[in-house]
Amino acid sequence: MNLEDVGSVFSGLPAYPESANQPEANRWGEGSQGGPATTTTSTAEDNSLLDAYSRAVTGAVERISPSVVNIEVHQSTARTRSGEPRERRGGGSGFVFTPDGLILTNSHVVHDARRIAVTLADGRHMPASAIGDDPASDLAVIRIDQARIDEPGLTAAALGDSQLLRVGQLVVAIGNPYGFQSTVTAGVVSALGRSLRSYSGRLIDDVIQTDAALNPGNSGGPLVDSVGRVVGVNTATILPAQGICFAIGINTAKFVASRLLRDGRIRRSYIGVSAQTVPIHRRVVRFYDLPKEKGVVALSIEGKSPAQRAGVREGDVIVALEGHPVAGVDDLHRVLTEVRVGVSCSLTVLRRTEKLELRIVPEEAAN
Questions:
Q1: What percent of the chain has pLDDT over 90?
Q2: pLDDT per residue as tens digits for the range 112-165
């Protein structure tokens, strides 16, 4: 081996100070087990992983932060002894989802608000008004007054698909609590398909559980994936626990927002089941030629409900309602909103391996 060959062998090794013991350095470079070369490689790999994680979080924050707003609300309370109206101040977060100033937030943030003001990411303070709110899903849409499509500082957030989420996936929760711009927490999707009772008393199904910490002022802010797409709307946290926070799936939010924009309220049909999205075995899908590979399992049946009168049992998997395929809780909500209240319709369920057609008469749900 000539000197050029020796030089090529050591050219890829880290440089050592001239004062270092050269024979010892050569022995480390030969890759002896347990030596500092292994430690150096491990440290470099750890730094690389940390950098990748940091890049994902910072990239998501940079994309979504211009869309996040602080919402200040003035609500009426009991009058004073002199008869003058008394106001209570509150607020939360939200995010712009259209270029003309429509903002998505929680219903409990703006419910019964007399006045609403929005602070944009650039610090501007603008009045806003409520388009509609839905306490049953804890979602609301407000609009910045006199906003224009070319209004500077109005950046619409990119909306993702909450049905594509996986447990363990990186998510970032962003809010604007009490005017502290872009409060960021990161975590993972802890569980999918959770149920959460809204303050109206109705169960919100298909809720995302995450360990990305939420503060009280983060309500209504976006939960985003690693590329900055909104996959949920932050809504609640379990106060006695740590790392148990919830967000409403963006697919549910899209549907609710579209109905609020059209009608100002949501007129829902009600069948009385607590449900969760589940996969259907491929053999069953092929045998019955089902259009979807997922359905909605009935976890519990409410007493004296349309589902109980129709003969729905716990464990039944709903796959269609009035001929419309049901591949998830979002689909069931969508179809129940479209069907007519008080009109008998067909409900297709799988009971173990048997396919059944039941007749059910949905009732109007109280908002």
A1: 40
A2: 888 899 988 888 888 999 999 888 888 999 999 876 655 666 889 999 999 889
**Same-domain pairing of 225 and 173:** yes
Which is catalytic among the residues 219, 225, 316, 331?
A: 219
- The per-residue pLDDT for 212 is 86
Give kind and range of the element (H or E) at residue 128.
Answer: strand 125-134
Amino acid (one-letter) located at 267: R
- Residue 172 and residue 135 share a domain: no
Based on the domain organization, do 253 and 290 belong to the same domain? Answer: no
Which residue among 138, 206, 225, 316 is the active-site one?
A: 138
- CA gap 260, 131 in Å, rounded: 7
The catalytic residue among 93, 108, 316, 331 is 108
Residue 209 belongs to a domain: yes
Rounded Cα distance, 34 and 50, in Å: 23
User: For position 198, which CATH number holds?
Assistant: 2.40.10.10
- Return d(Cα 349, Cα 315) in angstroms, integer: 10
In a domain, residue 5? The reply is no
What's the Cα-to-Cα distance from 301 to each of 35, 78, 92, 177, 250, rounded to whole Å? 63, 39, 35, 38, 26
- CATH number of the CATH domain containing 293: 2.30.42.10
Residue 126: domain span: 65-144
For the chain, residues with pLDDT lower than 70 are: 1-50, 77-87, 147-153, 177-182, 199-203, 237-243, 337-339, 366-367
Does the annotation count 300 as an active-site position?
A: no
| CA–CA dist 6, 208 (Å, integer) | 58
How many domains does one find in the chain?
Answer: 3
pTM of structure: 0.65
Q: 346-363 pLDDT, tens per residue? A: 999 999 889 999 999 999
Q: Identify whether 138 is a catalytic site residue.
A: yes
Q: Which of 229, 259, 289 is the last residue of a domain?
A: 259
Domain membership of residue 155 (yes or no) is: no
